[in-house]
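Minimal example, chain plus heme C.
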Amino acid sequence: MKAKVFIAGMGTSLFLAGLAGLVVAWSGIVSVSAIGESGTLDRLLGYASSQSIHRHAGTQTNPFATDPEAVRTGLHHYKENCIACHAASGIDKAEFAQGLNPPPPKLTAPSIRDATDGELFWVIANGIRSTGMPAFAPTHSEEEIWKIVTFVRHLRELSADEIEQLKPANEGDESHHHDQSGH
Ligand code: HEC
């Protein structure tokens, strides 16, 4: 009898908690503005996200880890698809990327260094829903994604020549645009 009352109590509590969640969602009380510090909900979602990546990622190691050609190919993909958000040493992220929340992390951060090959591959292939991080599997082959992983691992040891290659081709155009628009 006691167990039954307990289970009924638990059921009611869970139901009420779910209902409270729905009421909060319905009320619109939680702001979706990208401006401001992250709160408890953001931290919870961030935690859920990294747990999910950890769980879904494969255990493969990068077949192109030590391939110098992969660094060169990866550089071109990085310049075209990643640098605007993730920057690189000597190259700032784009203005729009400064307004992203959650912010795109620097890919030289220890948390990225400590990620497994499988985790990096999974994130780049699948992206992270409801953040700025796009999925690249729809537009890139597995081989290309592995080469991007190779380059991400190489970001901490860029040569002067590689930094030059990563800079926007048309520096003149860029400054022209900025002069004209006044910012
Ligand atoms: C439009 C902006 C944008 C572009 C372009 C972009 N990213 Fe991201 N990326 C993000 C954001 C935002 C996050 C943080 C998401 C979060 O905090 O959950 C992120 C997170 C990541 C992470 C970290 C995941 C983790 O475990 O914390 C990696 C690795 C990554 N991106 C790699 C790349 C690579 C490689 C490319 C290019 C192929 C790329 N990103 C392109 C915005 C972008």
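Residues 46, 49-50, 53, 81-82, 84-86, 97, 100, 102, 104-105, 107, 112, 115, 120, 123-124, 128, 131-134, 136, 148, 152 surround heme C (CB under 6 Å). The CA atoms of residues 30 and 91 lie 35 Å apart.
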